[in-house]
Every structure is written in C-alpha cells, then in structure tokens.
Amino acid sequence: MKIDDILKVSPVIPVLSFRAVDEAVSVCRCLYEEGLKVLEITLRHPAAVDCIRAVRADLPDDTIVGAGTILDSDRAWEAHNAGATFGVSPGLTKTLGDTVKAMDWPFLPGIATLSEAMMAKEHGFTALKFFPAEISGGIGFLKAVGSVLPELTFCPTGGVTGATAASYLALKNVAAVGGSWLTERNKAGEIDPAIVRTKAAAAVAHF
Ligand SMILES: O=C(O)C(=O)C[C@H](O)[C@H](O)COP(=O)(O)O
C-alpha cells in the first residue's frame, strides 16, 4: 500500500498515545468499530511498540496500524518490525528519508514551512503531514502552498479538532486530518470509551 492509498481509506486519523497494551487494544477496538480503520500509535511511551504489536494481533485484519513520532532510522525499523504498516514523523531529516525510502515503507513526513515542503518533495515525498497545523498557519498556509505546489497533498495535524476537521477536509490539497482530540484523557488520566465512540462516530460523518 502507498501512503496516498492509506490516507484515502480514512480521512480522519486518530493520533494515539497509550500507556499500556490493554488500553491500546480496547480504545483501538472502539475506534475501529465506529469506522476509523487507520490508526496512528505514537512512539511516545515505552509501551508503544508493544501496543502496535498487540493492536495488529487483536484487531481485524483490515485495521491499518501506523507508528507516529518516528524521529530516526532506528525507530523506523523498530516500528516496521513490530508490524506498523506505515510511519509518520513530525519532521524529516535526510537520513530518515533515505532510510524509509530504502525500506519501501509508506511514510508521511512532517513539514511546517514552504522550504520544508520543497525539500520533502525533492526527497520524493508528495504526501506530507502539516505539523503543527493550527499554529503554523492552518488553512491559510495550506491554501498558499496549494497555489505554488499543487502536486502536494497534506494531512494537517496539531490543534485540529472535531470542530475544525471539516474545514480542513474541504481543501483540495488535504487528503486527511490527524489528531488526538478523539482520545483525550479525563481528569483521572483515563480515556473514556463512550466519549471515544461519540467523537469517532462524528468524525466518520466527514467521510
Ligand atoms: O507524536 C507525533 O508524531 C507528532 O507529530 C505529534 C502529534 O501528531 C500531535 O501531538 C497531535 O496533535 P494534537 O491533535 O494537537 O494533539
């Protein structure tokens, strides 16, 4: 699968940060059952790689589990070997770009400026994460990039919410949006499955 095909499967990609494997499996199951089949598990917690493995093993085969926060080549290989179908990074370095190209691993590198977008394109990436989207210019930035680099498509992430997702998705150069708004933790530090389901169902309405 190419990264463009993955973004077509689901225009809303939950960006997930789990503390434990059982939490990952139960929350991902709620998202999947509500219709969100592309999931990005960030490598922000020591349990993240085990979470990727467990979600791959426990959820139906048509779940597409990616790994986020891929900051270097070692993390790319680690996530790939745990079964992540694709990788996402908040940025891009030459070494990381070369690694994921050599791996032939679907990859969504992050950019926040025109020059970064041009460098990513030079590296052969045309589907890009726009991060952190809201504070880097949001919709206005994407419209401006679209006028000079119409061949690039974006997945804005960072500050996107259930209230703003639809306006991003209405842009020609936006293939999908990502975000953690679907799985916010409550005061007790827990992710409430009922809230996840409600927000996921609302997100699916954008498809
Ligand atoms: O960990 C990564 O790889 C990142 O690039 C950061 C995440 O994509 C954002 O933290 C999500 O943004 P929010 O939806 O505003 O929480």
Q: How would you describe this structure in keywords?
A:
207 residues, alpha/beta, TIM Barrel, three-stranded parallel β-sheet, 9 helices, 16% strand, binds 2-keto 3 deoxy 6 phospho gluconate, lyase, 2-dehydro-3-deoxy-phosphogluconate aldolase, schiff base
Biggest sheet, strands in spatial order?
5-4-3-2-1-9
CATH superfamily: Aldolase class I
Count of alpha and pi helical runs: 9
Q: What small molecules are bound in this structure? A: 2-keto 3 deoxy 6 phospho gluconate
Supply Rg.
16 Å
Q: Please outline the major beta sheet.
A: 6 strands, parallel
Low-confidence parts, pLDDT < 50 over ≥5 residues?
none
Q: In whole angstroms, how far apart are the ends?
A: 20 Å
Mean pLDDT: 97
CATH fold naming = TIM Barrel
Percent strand equals 15-25%
User: From N to C, what is the helix and strand string?
Assistant: HEHEHEHEHEEHEHEHEH
CATH architecture descriptor: Alpha-Beta Barrel
Backbone shape: globular
Count of DSSP strands: 9
Provide the CATH top-level class.
Alpha Beta
Broad structural category? alpha/beta
Number of domains: 1
Subunit structure: Homotrimer.
EC number: 4.1.2.14
GO molecular function, one term: 2-dehydro-3-deoxy-phosphogluconate aldolase activity
Keywords: Carbohydrate metabolism, Lyase, Schiff base
